[in-house]
Amino acid sequence: MPATLVIGCQWGDEGKAKIVDYLARDAEYVVRFQGGANAGHTVVVDGTRFAFHLVPAGILYPHATCILAGGMVIDPLALSSELDMLTEKRVDFQGRILISEQAHVVMPYHIRMDRGMEARRGASSIGTTGRGITPAYMDKVGRRGVRMGDFLRPRASFEKLIADRVRENNRAMKALGLPAVPVADTVHALSEVARKIAPFITDTRLVLWSALDRNKRVLCEGAQGTLLDVDHGTYPYVTSSSSSAGGAVTGAGLPPSAIDRVVGIYKAYCTRVGNGPFPTEEKGKTGDLLRKIGNEYGTTTGRPRRCGWFDAVAGRTAARLNGITEIALTKLDVLDPFSAIKVCTGYRSGKKRLHTVPISLETLTRCRPEYEEREGWNRSVARDTELPDKAEAYVARIESLLDCRVSLISMGPERLAVIDRTHKRRPATISP
After folding, report:
1. CA 135 to CA 115: how far, in whole Å?
2. Catalytic residue among 21, 26, 41, 384
3. What is the pLDDT of residue 75?
4. What distance in Å separates the CA atoms of residue 270 and residue 331, rounded to the nearest whole number?
5. Catalytic site residue 41?
């Protein structure tokens, strides 16, 4: 059975975790294919909030095996804390979490380097989370990284590797004017956590290939969003990995032919964390209201998100790039109180009207959004069985602008607050 891919189609924070949680009801394998603890996915079940940073959101279903695939960079100490959180909340994950031997390790010196490099940029800072992601990917590409498979080495060999890497990077940090990472403490901490997570580490490619051969249902989830993709995003204000559909293939170790369904996640408006261009950003009362109603603060950092109207130019670009087959539209309820709602249908750059996001940062920075204004519905979309007519019209307009159908509509954090338009129902229950 071909795999399903869930992709964020804006600047991240689109509500992917809830959609993954919804779709994971029918999945036997849930795969996170890129990024690291710089991502935050939040799921609310019966009033209990789960904040995931590394473990796929599908872990809340006892039938699902969750895979941290080779395209990820994993902070083992953060992962250990996340596993402790699951234990505290009585989620049984034994035998249901697998970690790729190929995934690279975020080391303590990566975190220190990340924060130091960001501080040195000053006013030109990217707005990273400071979780060590960029330096870890730099080491991966530079062929000097530590991989999760190294945690399976005999203890003496592992400890020598860690000590050597710490000393080597301490010299690099000294050149940057950063304090050194303690060698012995780091070796001890990672040796302890290695014993804890080593049983989860394996060649996850073989697991996934076997699952597909056995006609099992595989669901792949990404972190961040398409417009933060290192190749196709608003470079240099991007993440350090491929967060679009192409990254799923290489990150998970799947052949392209394995994926036949691509669910693009769009928020009913737009948000962005960190620096970089954001054509539809609202810096006044409108942006503040969207932030307040939508509780737009980062799961990982707590930073307030920049907020603005739906951007169909960015949306179309992401849809084409990822080969979106259907849309999950989230947080439609946040627009309930607005009497007028704007939608960006094009960019104006000088005399030119653009229908896709330009590659040049300089050009994008000069772009001004062209809006159409739609009448709001001024009532709760979450209250009734069917959407108000004006909310339906808003959804239909997004479908028209992106040339793709909206199959799921999410309203609010609870997992049951979903309209499944394919099956023409709201779920009364979601069985664990």
Report:
1. 10
2. 41
3. 97
4. 10
5. yes
